[in-house]
Design goal:
With 379 residues, the chain is α+β, with helices and mostly antiparallel strands. It contains nine helices and 23 strands. It has a seven-stranded antiparallel sheet. The protein has a six-stranded antiparallel beta barrel with strand order 10-11-12-15-14-13.
Length: 379
């Protein structure tokens, strides 16, 4: 009897060991494991085009996009302020201007994206602002001096150009199709350690009032973006460009999981204008606006908070000449509904100057359509 019990316990021990090994290394062999669900978790991540990428490795996207992302090194001369004591007339009487303010050469780094085989590079304005020299380093080890084609501080975008052969250009994606929860990849040169890819998801779309630039419509992501990533690529899981990494929200200077990227659809329009004319032309109404808060909607007896309140009208500006008055509520531009002041600013800025637009306003509870000749936004 004792011998039988020993055989039984040994058999159970062996079976448990086999079960442990199979469940760890080959769980799909177990009859109760849902094969479809397991394959989704262990073997592949499904993407929009129906293709699959191995878990733990977006290597296909990396191979496609990373060669197009460059490191940007800039240098400029900055004036070093002197001590206030040096400005004292008595001190200058004895020592003259030998202690006058001096200049120092400083350097900084960032990232950029090659967007055409001709050598055009899209990056941030603040990466190359006031730079005397701009050096670009490619992933394949080549380096070149870059020329600034044009820059737009109001959107924080700039276009550079390098003269090299066989340049790898990135493929543009469609940021209009981006959705909250989509997996995205951020590529750049954080802290100067070298080209790096990080992964996250889209946390929000249409972020504005961040205080980074005049025109804001950011993609928010938790993919790690750090100093040096500015101007780099935000791509989808196929390696297509959907945004230009611009800034982070941080109290320490490092990534806290809130990064912002300029949607590529907006960046393309600005880039094309810069390449063609060297600057960006935007539409303008000559008004100041504010969002409609619930309290303001209640005082104005409005049923909803959509739209933008016209708080002020510039005399002899396009809106003034069309009859727009302070207190009017802008509800739509050319039939496109307006939900906030920042959205209205972006819509009007996208309109070509000298063209007519129809503004739908609410005045004293009555809806009116007013035609306005769009002006050119002052620099």
């Amino acid at each position: 009897m004792q011998k039988l019990w020993l055989i039984f316990t040994q058999t159970i021990t062996i079976l448990l060991a086999v079960f442990f090994v199979v469940s760890t290394l080959r769980p799909e062999l177990l009859p109760w494991t849902p094969r479809g669900k397991l394959a989704t978790i262990r073997e592949a991540v499904r993407v929009d085009d129906g293709k699959t990428l191995a878990v733990g490795g977006f290597h296909t996207a990396a191979e496609v996009a990373m060669p197009s992302v460059v490191n940007i090194f800039t240098s400029k001369e900055v004036r070093v302020p002197s001590h206030p004591f040096m400005d004292d007339p008595v001190f200058q009487q004895f020592f003259g201007n030998r202690f006058s303010p001096r200049t120092e050469r400083t350097s900084s780094l960032g990232s950029g994206v090659i967007v055409s085989p001709e050598g055009y590079i899209l990056t941030n304005h603040h990466v190359v602002e006031a730079a005397n020299e701009i050096q670009v380093a490619l992933m394949d080890g080549r380096k070149a001096e870059a020329h600034l084609i044009g820059s737009d501080p109001e959107s924080d975008l700039a276009v550079l150009k390098i003269d090299l052969d066989k340049l790898p250009s990135i493929t543009f994606g469609d940021s209009e199709k981006a959705r909250v929860g989509d997996i995205v990849l951020a590529i750049g040169n954080p802290f100067g350690v070298g080209q790096t890819m990080t992964m996250g998801i889209i946390g929000a779309l249409g972020r504005s009032q961040v205080g980074l630039s005049t025109f804001e419509n950011f993609i928010q992501t938790d993919a790690a973006i750090n100093p040096g990533n500015s101007g780099g690529a935000l791509t989808d899981t196929s390696g297509n460009l959907i945004g230009i990494n611009t800034a982070i929200y941080s109290r320490s200077g490092g990534s806290l999981g809130i990064g912002f990227a300029i949607p590529v659809d907006a960046a393309k329009q600005i880039m094309q204008q810069i390449i063609e004319t060297g600057s960006v032309t935007r539409g303008w109404l000559g008004v100041s606006m504010q969002d409609i808060t619930p309290e303001l909607a209640e005082s104005l007896k409005l049923k909803k908070t959509n739209g933008a309140l016209i708080a002020g009208v510039l005399k002899n500006g396009p809106a003034d000449e069309a009859g727009i008055k302070p207190g009017d509520i802008l509800a739509a531009v050319n039939g496109k509904s307006v939900f906030s002041a920042s959205e209205m600013l972006n819509i009007v800025a996208s309109l070509p100057p000298s063209k007519a637009a129809v503004l739908t306003i609410i005045r004293n509870g009555e809806e009116l359509d007013i035609q306005v000749q769009i002006g050119k936004r002052p620099g």
